[in-house]
Amino acid sequence: MDSFIKSAKKLVNSYDCNCDNECNAKWFKRNFKNWTSGNNNIDKVIQDTQLSEHNNYSVKNALEWIPYDKLYDIKYITEDNKFGKVYRANWIDGCIYKWDNDNQNLIRKDQNMFVILKILNNPASITLELINEIAVFYKAYEVYGITQDPETKNYMVILDDICEKCNEMCNSIHFQRNFKNWINGNNDIDKFIQNTQLSAHYYNVRNALEWIPYGKLYDIKYITEDNKFGKVYRANWIDGCIYKWDNDNQNWIRKDQNMFVILKILNNPASITSEFINKV
Ligand SMILES: [Zn+2]
Ligand SMILES: [Zn+2]
């Protein structure tokens, strides 16, 4: 987050875009006419961060103006002495990933993502430094933008979600964001896997189960049958198991690719509980 401010400032100071090709900053600049926060100071802060994105890869440091109606399920969480009231919400659009020059549109990711909203008490005092301070305070990896509650007129900074238990980003949040990307078709099993993932706080992912597509297994061989749990198979698992979260690539690092694993048939999916899994 410190680098966010430094790179934004350095590049803003030398703003003239020297990029030969299309860059994110050029697109952002063309788009200035399509939004306003209604507050010159806030517009300027957002624009400065956008003009610093001189590449045509993924957007890292640009803030954006986020219309309040793009947020839903807005819930008050807590109040802290330093930065006041904190809310949580879901963001329909999700955050900017990059400008797609071929198709002339903006690619976003993580639709309906959870975000944290922090009220800015004095819009006139909003600076990148203040936003940075808030981000550091909340241990946020990303600041996405600024919005305004149309009723209270409060401006709010939108940050990435943090875990209420750990008070920072943890594995549980990374797993939660990925829920929409997998589903096995059985509600009980989905819920069961999700619960183990939501319990994987801090850096411990050992107890988190995951949904493993059958196509990720090969050389599946029948081994034996036992009285209590029935047929047992062995196989190789292409991906290997989750090791830890890689913040640079925003993905899981896995280890032991092609590892041997044991497969055990579950006769009654509705009866799956953690007690049962432990017994297996
Ligand atoms: Zn440029
Ligand atoms: Zn946590």
DSSP helical segment count: 7
Strand content: 25-35%
Q: For the record, give the distance between the C-alpha atoms at the N and C termini, rounded to a whole number.
A: 44 Å
The total tally of domains equals: 2
Radius of gyration, Cα only, in angstroms?
23 Å
3D structure, described in words:
This protein has two domains: 2-160, no CATH class; 171-279, no CATH class. Helix content is 23%, strand content 31%. It is built from seven helices and 13 strands. The protein is elongated. The two termini are 44 Å apart. The site of one zinc ion has 6 residues, from loops.
What are the main properties of this structure?
280 residues; alpha+beta; 7 helices; binds zinc ion
